[in-house]
């Protein structure tokens, strides 16, 4: 749109989108759960730095309930 085009022409960054509620799932039952948690922390940090509301959720039996609670 014209706002994005004007920002691009002026050399500014694209307009920031409205804040979102984001759930980042991590862990799980696999041997790679620790790697998943580490990656999820990085993703969550990047999203939060851009103004989004982030929830880190462990991928386990309580995950579905936790998703409903933060919705």
Structure, briefly:
The protein has 71 residues and is of the alpha+beta class. 48% of the residues lie in helices and 17% in strands. The protein has helices at 2-10, 33-49, 63-70; strands at 21-26, 53-58.
Write a structural description:
This protein has 71 residues and is an alpha+beta fold. Helices cover 48% and strands 17% of the residues. It has three helices and two strands, in the order H-E-H-E-H. The chain is flat, with a radius of gyration of 17 Å. The model is unreliable at 1-8 (pLDDT under 50).
Q: Largest sheet, described in full?
A: 2 strands, parallel
Poorly predicted runs of 5 or more residues: 1-8
**Mean pLDDT over all positions:** 85
Structural class: alpha+beta
Helices and strands, in N-to-C order? HEHEH
- Shape designation: flat
Strand content: 15-25%
User: Share of helix among residues?
Assistant: 40-55%
Number of helices: 3
Distance between the termini: 30 Å
Instruction: Enumerate the strands of the largest sheet in spatial order, edge to edge or round the barrel.
Output: 1-2
- What oligomeric arrangement do these chains adopt? single chain
Question: How many E strands?
Answer: 2
* Cα radius of gyration in angstroms: 17 Å
